[in-house]
Amino acid sequence: MSASSSDLSSVKYGYDFVVATTQASINATMKLFLSGLTEPEVTVCYVADDQGNPVEIDYDQLKEQAKGSDPFAVPATADPATDPDLRNLINARFMMGFRAQIGLPPGIAPGAVPDIVTLGSDTSSVIYNLLCSEFIVVELNPGGGYSPPTWFSQSQPSGSPWVYTSKVDLRLSTVDQSAYSRLPAPVQQQIKRLGPAAFSVQQLLFDLDNAALETIPVLSGVTPGTTLYMVLEQSFLGAYFTQQKKNGQPLLGCVIQQSGAPTSTLTLTDLDMEVSPFLDGNGRTIVDPTPDQRSLATLSYLCAADGDPLPAAVPFGWNWIETAEETDYDGVVAINRTALANYFRNRLAGYVATNCYRPTVTVTYDFSSGTTYSWNMFPGQNPTVTTPATGPTVLAFHYDADTADQAGLNGDMGQMELHPSYDVTVDFSGDTITVVQQLVIYLRVQVYATSVGGNVVNVTITDTYTLAVTQDGRLAATLTTNRQDNSQNPGTDPFLNFFTGVNTVTNEVKGWLQKATSTNLQDIPVSVVQNFVFPGGRTFAFKSAQFSDFGDLVSHITYTDPTG
To answer: Of 53, 311, 335, 538, which shows the fewest CB atoms inside 10 Å?
Structure first.
């Protein structure tokens, strides 16, 4: 039940391609990304309005109003009754604030860092743990009456992170009741970016950290009921989270870095996400998976290319990564056989047409000059094209035509017939693409009562491409070619030829046909294969290229270093 079972062309699926990465690889790569993240740092401050309600204020504006005093620079032990900075902040009506930065919490061994993503079994409820490398909260109560002013300042301690856990709805579809479907179009476009970074952990972190897709986070690592807990709930999970959720903005300003990459042959035009839990050998979801089995669940990007409609998300009946592959690969990219067949169809169409001939023949008789034969072949005709849904043959071109003419009563003074046919098939199997082309031209010539005929052109060319893939996703191939010429040389015996000259006419036509067609009938150049580029760019390093049992092109992938 591995990726070798990929069958995206099935009517059940229909996605042009799928990118699937495991929970384990997402967490490892995202932690690596966070370990090198130095920005952005988010600073949020509130002052009291005339009714005493908190109103957000720009950080620099606050300091200006507070005569340069910075609430995040005031020691936790400062006395608001005597500290000049706190007096300035009271006069500026400062109430509370926080400063936070996404990243790995300090003082924790790498193996002890909590997972950032837990996929579970449903894309609508992916668990996301917001981890911060820096988090400080401050609160200033000016007091009043018999209550003295109070000052509170506390930072996330080393080795004891404050973790905010949300459930995130990653269904990026407007056809269901997803959180995404209720957002304004500009916000949707920001969440569903379709550029070269679409599959990166930076983009995924942007989506996970987007307040519009999250439930209200649950805070752990802080004792409920304490002053710290109440300040965090009020300043961070209160007005600030509510505002970010309303605006559809990332909670802590996660940035997306667009990386250079070779342009994919398939242009991504729509996508959705789906969680694919690890399945047992019978293709069923494991009810109580082990930690290792949970880590092999994949986040699957369901992709439409070049304007094709995107089918609804449905569960896959196979695992994208098996247990034995976990240490070697982070996931796979699978290309629908039909999408790849259409690529070859477009690449081969012009060449195929040059070998599709419309024949013409004319046979005339004149008493003084005898029988005259004339003929021609016009290339550039349109073949029929089929893309079989099953079997190794994924693409087939076929063209045939025939024409005939005669002179005299019932053709007794001469006849001629031409019947060209041309076939091209493209097969996917294992790690090879096989292109077979056969051009056959049947010729029959009759002079008086003597007739000869046969396949004066019968050439078969078999091009076999053994596939590989470069690290950045370009398809590579080694070409071997086999050319068979089974052309016939029809003719009659010398005695009859002496009286009729039929061999002379036949040889003249045959020579002309073979010369005319040999120029166009060539090996398919290896560039037809090598010009294909997988989607994924520099987000992934590509490790292999192999066709599934159903003809999908599958490449195993690993994440590249997200820190650049």
So the answer is: 53
- Separation between Cα atoms, residue 501 and residue 445, nearest integer Å: 11
Answer yes or no: is 21 within a domain: no
For the segment 261-265, the average pLDDT, to the nearest whole number, is 76
Residue 98: strand pairing partners:
44, 137
Q: What is the pTM of this model?
A: 0.88
Residue 24 falls inside a structural domain: no
303: containing domain? 3-12+260-335+535-559
User: Would you place residue 492 in the very low, low, confident or very high pLDDT band (cuts 50, 70, 90)?
Assistant: low
- Are 364 and 300 members of one domain? no
Tell me the average pLDDT of the chain: 88
Same domain for 58 and 168, yes or no, is yes
CA dihedral sign, ordered 5, 11, 13, 17: positive
In the structure, what pLDDT confidence band is assigned to residue 499 with cuts at 50, 70 and 90? very low
195 pLDDT more than 80:
no
Written as six digits, the tokens of 511 are 């020579």
Largest CA distance in the chain: 135
Residue-wise burial string across 267-301, b where 16 or more C-beta atoms lie within 10 A, e elsewhere: ebebbbbbbbbbbeeeeeeeeebeeebbbbbbbbb
Cβ(236)–Cβ(137) under 8 Å?
yes
Residue 321: name the closest of 53, 520, 42, 558 by CA. 558
Same domain, 302 and 449: no
Q: What share of the chain is helix, strand, coil (3-state, %, to 5)?
A: 25, 35, 40
Token pair listed for 500: 């009729």
What pLDDT sits at residue 244? 85
Count how many domains the chain has: 3
Tokens of 397: 């071109």
Give CA–CA dist 447/463, Å, rounded. Answer: 40
Tell me whether residue 19 is in a domain.
Answer: no
Report the chain's terminal Cα–Cα distance, integer Å. 35
The reply to whether 112 and 96 lie within a common domain is yes
Q: Which residue, among 281, 276, 335, 283, has the nearest Cα to 304 in the 3D structure? A: 335
Q: Is residue 176 domain-shared with residue 293, that is, in the same domain? A: no
In this structure, the number of other CB atoms found within 10 A of the CB of residue 106 comes to 13
Pair of tokens at residue 488: 């016939």
Task: Please report the pLDDT score of residue 156 as a whole number.
Answer: 93
Query: Which is more confidently placed, 166 or 564?
Result: 166
Confidence of residue 406 (pLDDT cuts 50, 70, 90): very high
Asked if residue 401 lies in contact with residue 422, where contact means CB atoms within 8 angstroms, the answer is no
Query: Residues 6 or more apart from 260 whose CB is under 8 A from it?
Result: 196, 537, 538
Query: In the prediction, which pLDDT does 7 show?
Result: 96
31-54 tens-digit pLDDT: 988 887 766 789 999 999 888 888
CA–CA gap between residue 398 and residue 384 (Å, rounded)? 5
The residues, any chain, with a CB within 8 Å of residue 391's CB and separated by 6 or more, are none
